[in-house]
Design goal:
With 418 residues, the chain is α+β, with helices and mostly antiparallel strands. 24% of the residues lie in helices and 29% in strands. Strands 1, 2, 5, 6, 18, 19, 20, 23 and 24 form a 9-stranded antiparallel β-sheet that branches. A 6-stranded mixed β-sheet has the order 15-16-17-21-22-25, with helices on both faces. A hairpin with a 4-residue loop joins β15 and β16. α6 runs parallel beside α7. It is globular and about 75 Å long. It starts with a strand and ends with a helix.
């Protein structure tokens, strides 16, 4: 069974059920985005998940439910459709519809059923495989509107001017009301060179019609450079399965180049693997110190602590966050802030504080199901609240169009001042 938190999430990240779930291998993902985020969010979609192996606790709040469901009326509906429906029915679609309905009945934006095809896409993205699309994470807001959680830097979505929290009202002229994230991702992804038309609503007022040409999306999860002789810069775009090891390698490279101060850029990062987020936080936080806890109700399911030699320990650090920073990104941001290892600059983060598990099904599908909430070292759960930066800095449309990154500039200035 795979565990995700998203984003995961991922994130993103980016899942389905089997009859009664089995105890066994669990992948945990914190992929993000605070309302309904599918791991397919890289295509417009990347997100909800990356994988962590652990033990999946089977206790829950629904022990009073019957061990098996009464399918008598379900069979009655099926019988009527089979004999009376004026049209052609597909057995596989009927069965998948039952599974999707069970998942949707949980009334949780992160609990989703994936068909075998969608499960493969999900897993490919967890493993860092490329795809063709526009490069944006999708979610839902509290009103069930389809929204952009974050465009990925350098992708067609970002280049076209798509922004976090944009509502996607139409895809290729079709209204998105009631459309699932999974179906929206399928409609937005497509062959390289083809065009998708999106009608966006920004700030509940401005309507934008965009034509975006799809491209192959393959983004390294960790990028680094020196901003000046002593200031290192690390950007993490998603928490993939290999992000922790890549970040550790790049951390040593920055230190070898003379880094004395760090900017960690988590803007637009929808989340991913729990394990990777712990490994990244451990670059700053000393071995054994608390990074986060998972709880179900008041019961602590698991406590995560830092591991390793914390190569960045004591280096002045600023973490950049925005509305597209979710799930695993929030785990790292919250842990670095609460431990005193870094200050946060930018805009309030997305606010996804729940964990999902991914259960493989016998037919190749998967169920992604919310199993816990995660808590910062200071005891806070940030779900639907996000994390406020220590210093709020926004990027205006004019600055963005001019290619001016006022948030990064402010982070550098803060490090110089300190």
């Amino acid at each position: 069974m795979v565990k995700t938190d998203t984003k995961t999430r991922a994130d993103g990240a980016p899942a389905e059920i089997a009859s009664p779930p089995r105890i066994g291998t669990v992948s945990k993902v914190v992929i993000g985005l605070a309302l309904a985020f599918s791991v397919f969010s890289f295509g417009v979609g990347v997100g909800n998940g990356r994988i962590h192996i652990g033990n999946f606790a089977k206790s829950g709040q629904n022990g009073e439910l019957p061990a098996t469901l009464d399918y008598s009326t379900v069979n009655q509906v099926y019988d009527v459709l089979r004999h009376e429906y004026d049209g052609k029915l597909d057995n596989a679609k009927l069965v998948n519809g039952l599974k999707q309905g069970l998942a949707q009945a949980a009334d949780d934006p992160y609990t989703e059923y994936f068909t075998a095809e969608k499960a493969k896409q999900f897993n490919d993205q967890l493993n860092g495989a490329g795809f063709s699309g526009i490069g944006a994470e999708l979610g839902q807001d509290k009103d069930k509107n389809l929204i952009v959680v974050a465009p990925i830097a350098g992708t067609p979505a970002a280049q076209a001017g798509v922004k976090p929290q944009d509502v996607i009202a139409e895809i290729d002229g079709k209204d998105t009301t009631g459309l699932s994230i999974e179906d929206a991702v399928s409609k937005i992804r497509g062959k390289k060179g083809t065009v998708v038309e999106l009608k966006l609503v920004r700030n509940r007022a401005d309507v934008l019609d965009l034509k975006i040409t799809r491209d192959d999306i393959k983004i390294p999860s960790v990028e680094t450079k020196m901003l000046d002789e002593t200031t290192g810069y690390m950007r993490i775009t998603t928490f993939g399965m290999d992000t922790g090891s890549l970040a550790a390698q790049q951390a040593q490279s920055l230190l070898d180049q003379g880094t004395k101060k760090i900017v960690l850029d988590l803007r637009g990062n929808p989340g991913g693997s729990v394990d990777s987020s712990i490994e990244v936080a451990s670059l700053w936080i000393p071995n054994g110190k608390l990074v986060m806890q998972e709880k179900r109700g008041n019961d602590v399911l698991k406590t995560y602590t830092a591991k390793g030699n914390a190569p960045f320990k004591g280096l002045p650090t600023v973490v950049l966050i925005n509305a597209g920073s979710a799930s695993a990104s929030e785990i790292v941001s919250g842990a670095l802030k609460d431990s005193g290892a870094a200050s946060l600059l930018g805009e309030k983060s997305y606010g996804k504080g729940v964990v999902q598990a991914i259960e493989p099904l016998r037919d190749g599908g998967q169920l992604k199901v919310t199993v816990a909430r995660w808590y910062r070292p200071d005891g806070q759960n940030i779900d639907k609240k996000g994390i406020e930066p220590d210093q709020k800095v926004t990027i205006s449309d004019e600055d963005a169009q001019a290619g001016k990154d006022t948030q990064l500039e402010a982070a550098q200035a803060k490090l110089v001042a300190n």
